[in-house]
Amino acid sequence: MSDNYSFSSLSRAKSAAIDAGLREHMLRIYNRMTLGVLVTAAVAWFLSGSQELMQFFLGGPQMWLVMLAPLAIVFFGFNPAKVSSGTMKMMFLLLSVLYGISFSVIFVAYTGESIARTFFVAAAMFAGLSIYGYTTKKDLSGMASFLIMGMIGLFVLSIINIFMESSMMGNVIAAAGIIVFGGLTAWDTQKMKEIYSPRMDPEIASRLSWLGALSLYIDFIAMFQYLLHFMGNRE
């Protein structure tokens, strides 16, 4: 009886330690993701007040650097097997700044009220979907390939629509984008939860936290952008 009680107590203590470690791990990811969103918002708001700075960053060939550099950062700056936690932090903040430069046009094109309204709707959707991904017992990995293919399709269609300038295609892309990145939010959250291990090296855990923050940051930014297509009121 005593042995069974000791074993049960040990199991509960171990489970509690894992739960506490997992909560800390997920909280670190959410805090870092939030930092990125705040940096992006601050840079976008600041640049929108200066026509000269916006023209400098977005008015010439350097516009392509601002637009394409984030892709290079994601592909080459976020490999947990090769890049240190400190480097990933710098890459994440740089990415957040670059997105902020691109998003500065939003503060010029849309009213502040509609931007704020869309932000809170996106935040509520993100929170709900992330909570679902964290708590559901259903394995969401089955829809991963569909979501990734959908994301690639959105990118291709967006490039095509730059030249077509079709409002109908724009609506379809935005609606599909909300669905795709909403699904990715739930899947990415579940994936981060399952990757966690209490025996993980602190440096590796920090690297994975930055990688998780990047994934959720992109999910949120994309959902906000697509929601703004429907909810934004132009100046």
Indicate the overall shape.
Answer: globular
For the secondary structure, the number of strands is 0
Mean pLDDT: 88
The percent range for helix content is: over 70%
Distance between the termini: 74 Å
Radius of gyration: 20 Å
Structural class: mainly alpha
Q: Could you give a short account of the major beta sheet?
A: none
Number of helices: 8
Strand share of the residues?
Answer: under 5%
Q: pLDDT below 50 for ≥5 consecutive residues: which ranges?
A: none
What count of domains describes the coordinates? 1
- The ordered string of helix (H) and strand (E) elements is HHHHHHHH
Give the structure's gist in a few sentences.
By secondary structure, the protein is mostly helical. The chain contains 8 helices and no strands.
Structural write-up:
With 235 residues, this protein is mainly α. It has helices spanning 2-48, 51-58, 62-76, 85-109, 112-135, 144-164, 167-195, 202-231. The termini are far apart.
Structural topology:
Elements: H1 2-48, H2 51-58, H3 62-76, H4 85-109, H5 112-135, H6 144-164, H7 167-195, H8 202-231
Key words describing this protein structure:
mainly alpha; 8 helices; 235 residues
